[in-house]
Design brief:
By secondary structure, this protein is an all-alpha fold. The chain is about 75% helix and about 0% strand.
């Protein structure tokens, strides 16, 4: 696997894992009442849904990054 693909997959993995961590911490803080979830509300979406979307986006990004690594190692 060449350097550019490795850097892109590494970036996806780091960003994805970071977003997943931030989203999970945000969900725990919002559900425990330490932060106000409605602060993150956009339009008709509730704050919990937006915070959860951050965690889901992180999961998907890291899955793509790991998939790229696995695909090119074959």
């Amino acid at each position: 696997m060449n350097t550019t693909k490795r850097q892109i997959s590494g970036l996806l993995i780091v960003v994805g894992n970071s977003l997943t961590g931030i989203g999970c911490i945000g969900l725990v803080l919002a559900l425990s009442g330490l932060i106000e979830a409605e602060f993150f509300a956009l339009g008709i979406s509730s704050g919990i849904r937006v915070i959860g979307s951050v965690a889901i986006t992180g999961c998907l990004s890291s899955a793509v990054g790991y998939g790229v690594v696995e695909y090119f190692e074959k």
